[in-house]
Structures are given as structure tokens and as C-alpha cells.
Write a structure and sequence with these properties.
Helix content is 52%, strand content 8%. A hairpin with a 6-residue loop joins strand 1 and strand 2. The chain has two domains: 36 residues, no CATH class; 34 residues. The model has no long low-confidence stretch (mean pLDDT 79). The chain is built from two helices and two strands; from the N terminus they run ββαα. The chain has a two-stranded antiparallel ribbon with strand order 1-2. It is mainly α and 71 residues long.
Length: 71
């Protein structure tokens, strides 16, 4: 059985990965890479939550100002 020289194994979990033909390096697979960036995922979730809450707050005060205008 012949193996393809373009394929190798992930250095972390031994999953099959492509070998970069220019550098000859094996990169970590998508599963191992996603485990490393869990902090970035949480930061993204908090950022989205902050933007949504800011928008809701701005909308609330805008509607409140328009409805309760004192003359």
C-alpha cells in the first residue's frame, strides 16, 4: 500500500493533515487549532453581548425620550 506524500499526521492528535508543499511543515488539524482559541471565542461572545445590550439601551432611552416629552 503506497501513501500519499502530501499527507501527514497532526503533531498533537495524529489526525490526517495536509503537508504544505512549500515549507514541508505539517500544521495542526482544525480540531486541535479550535481548542487553542477557546479564549477568543469567549471574548467574541462577550463583545456581541455588549453590542446588543448597548443597542437595546440606546433604543430604550430613545423611545422613552420620544414618548415622555414634557412641554
Amino acid at each position: 500500500m503506497s501513501t500519499n506524500e502530501n499527507w501527514g499526521q497532526c503533531p498533537a492528535c495524529n489526525a490526517p493533515v495536509m503537508i504544505d508543499p512549500k515549507s514541508g511543515k505539517k500544521e495542526a488539524c482544525g480540531q486541535c487549532t479550535s481548542k487553542k482559541s477557546s479564549t477568543a471565542g469567549w471574548l467574541g461572545i462577550w463583545f456581541i453581548l455588549l453590542v446588543v445590550l448597548g443597542g437595546v439601551t440606546a433604543l430604550y432611552f430613545s423611545i422613552r425620550t420620544l414618548l415622555f416629552v414634557e412641554e
